Amino acid sequence: MSTMTLTDTQALALGKQYRQASAALRKYRLAKDALSDTSVKQLKLIETSLRDAARDMTTLAVAIVIDEGQADLAALGAVTDDALAQLDTINGIKRVLSVATALLGLAAAIPTGKPAEVADAFRALRELLPTVAVKLPA
Amino acid sequence: MLQLIKRYFAPALLACALAGCANLGAIKEFGSLSADSAGYSALTDDYIGSLERSKRHTLRKDEAQRATLTRQALAREPQRVQLQLYHQSIEAYMASLAALAADELTRYDGQIDPLVNAATRNGMIAADKAGMVKALSKLLADAATNAYRQRELKRLIAAGNAPLQGILADMVRIMAGFDAAIDDDAALYDAYYEELMHLAEKNEPVAAELLWREHGATVASFEQRRQAIAPYIATLKSIGAAHQSLYDHRENIADREVLAQVKQYTQQIRATYRLVRTARKQETQ
Q1: Which residues 6+ apart lie within 8 Å of B173 measured at CB?
Q2: CA-CA distance, B282 to B285, in Å (whole number)?
Q3: A126 pLDDT above the threshold of 60
Q4: Per-residue confidence at B5, pLDDT binned at 50, 70, 90?
Q5: CA separation for the pair B111, B124 (Å, rounded)
Q6: Contact call for B65 and A87, based on CB within 8 A
Q7: Cα B41 from Cα A124, distance rounded (Å)
Q8: For residues B234 and B272, what is the distance between their CA atoms, to the nearest angstrom?
Q9: Taking CB atoms and an 8 Å cutoff, what residues of chain B touch A86?
Q10: What is the value of pTM for the model shown?
Q11: What's residue A115's pLDDT?
């Protein structure tokens, strides 16, 4: 036994046909006053069922797209997570560069032998260090 | 100190020149606007809520029809979260694209300047050289981050293009489903209206007149709901085209022509997205 898989386009096309068939039956029924009560009842039931089926087809069409899109959603989510991590790294680089520059200042101050300069440079470096989340790019 | 600066900062100056210290504002604007428009979920809300709302177009005695609509609404409800995921994933991706293109990262001037000022006060750096030292420090940081940012943008666009195009194409297909949901609502309403009109025309001419008067407004409301769909599809397609263009030119992402093209797409997105919002606003009025 073979199974048939609907595409979203096919599901929407079927839904459209159901709606059209339901409307055509209703117009026929309303135009024929001589129909028996049983026939009217049967026709109404079919009309309603066709409209119900059309709505099911609409929901199914969207479900088909959603099912097929899961891999892309997961892939884009992973790419976005990676980008956010890189943003953190860029912020980290700026801070690391700040510290590197502060280190240069300290390196320049030490040979002068002036305690005030060394103290200033050291203080600047010490203040910067806690702000650095060291995560250098690969 | 100046010797140290020359030794360590000269490569940075060269790096800055090579990186171009580009202004990626066009990409930032594209990312921000796309994030905003992709995150627009009023059409999804309309689709999910339409089955419950359509109960008002059922006859009082037709409890079976309302029960069916309740069942169908419950079956559709889980799609709300899944559809939100579509909106959110594009929104998050575009926001990260905008953030990577933005030059609003942590400023370090406030940290460097006091250091240089202290060195100047203590005679380590001549006063007339202090400005240059600060400028060099900033160039060093900018060169490193610009080059790094462009590299990461290229990486992001290269990795993100295929899934993004897939998701955008899916959303366009989903919009066809939203359109069909309006057709479903209209079909239920037509059945309700024609049934009532059939009864009223025979026995209640005044009721028939009142029904007919209501009919025009109801039909117009369906068309109003539909009006936002076409420009939203156009918005999604422009986002896809702009990103594809960035992908195709990712090796020259800071190129003036590439950025000009992105700007054009951004204008298209802004125009069609405005139509979406206007259509929805008119519908809710």
Answers
A1: A8, A9, A65
A2: 5
A3: yes
A4: very low
A5: 18
A6: no
A7: 49
A8: 7
A9: 100, 152, 155-156
A10: 0.78
A11: 67
B175 near A CB under 8 A: no
pLDDT of res. B165: 95
Position of tokens 């992105």? Answer: B262
Which residue in chain B is spatially nearest to A15 when comparing CA positions? B180
User: Per-residue pLDDT for B7 more than 60?
Assistant: no
Q: Do A69 and B167 touch (CB under 8 A)?
A: yes
Tokens of A135: 């995560």
The minimum CA-CA distance between A75 and chain B, rounded to whole Å, is 6
| Residue B164 structure tokens | 């993004």
Nearest residue of chain B to residue A66 (CA atoms): B82
ipTM score above 0.95: no
- Residue B50: which of B171, B229, B214, B275 has the closest Cα? B229
What's the gap in Å between the CA of B135 and the closest CA on chain A?
Answer: 12
Chosen for mutation from A90, A106, A112, A136 (greatest number of chain B CBs closer than 10 Å) is A90
Whether the predicted pLDDT of B34 surpasses 90: yes
Q: Which of A19, A55, A120 sits opposite B72 (nearest CB)?
A: A55
Alpha-carbon span B76 to B115, nearest angstrom: 62
